[in-house]
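User: Sequence in, structure out. Go.
Assistant: Echoing your sequence, followed by the structure tokens.
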Amino acid sequence: MNKDKLDYLDAMDIQGWALREKPIAKQQDCPSESVALSSEEPGKLSAMGWSELKDCVQNCQKCSLHLTRTQTVFGVGDQSATWMLVGEAPGKDEDLQGRPFVGRAGQLLTEMLTAIGLTREAVFIANTIKCRPPNNRDPEPEESESCRGYLQRQVELVQPKILLAFGRIAAQNLLGTELPLKELRGKVHYYGVDKIPVVVVYHPAYLLRSLTEKRKAWDDLQLALKVRG
């Protein structure tokens, strides 16, 4: 067991475990509504590559969040990754830096990935919502709907073999459900027409506040490893 993995287990209060192993797009060029991305319903968004999609997100004004954001948070990582991580909505640090999962929660996420043999550079990380809701409140339904097509297109472009949904909002948005997190964890769900496996994981920010749930988070990661084989 290497030092990085031991550091993560220490951070999770878990000891003595053996690890298993183009030009900027104008606003009018972006769809005004979320686009269904199945092959039967092609649209402008579903035809975009990475550069066009990022420009579209950066110029998005579909909902009122564009009035209060510092910048959008598009996503980072390997654009052809096997693992894709989906978080909830950007917080203050993410809004300032334009990157998902930074700060203490981001550090813990890095340790969680290390513990299962992954790095941040080897996965793709995105949020369901691309702009920070004021005061870190939960996104409104119309805000989530405005961003839905962006995340769908990101998944299409990455073509991951597994999706990890971090936190209640990410899980509910990906799975189209209102079920609570406790009923979504511990089982394998499927996303989209390609039936990509989805495993729901406790959000690192929640784990920093709720030390007693860290062992359950380790169980989430072990389930994801089992799914990936």
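User: And one key feature?
Assistant: The longest helix spans residues 141-158.
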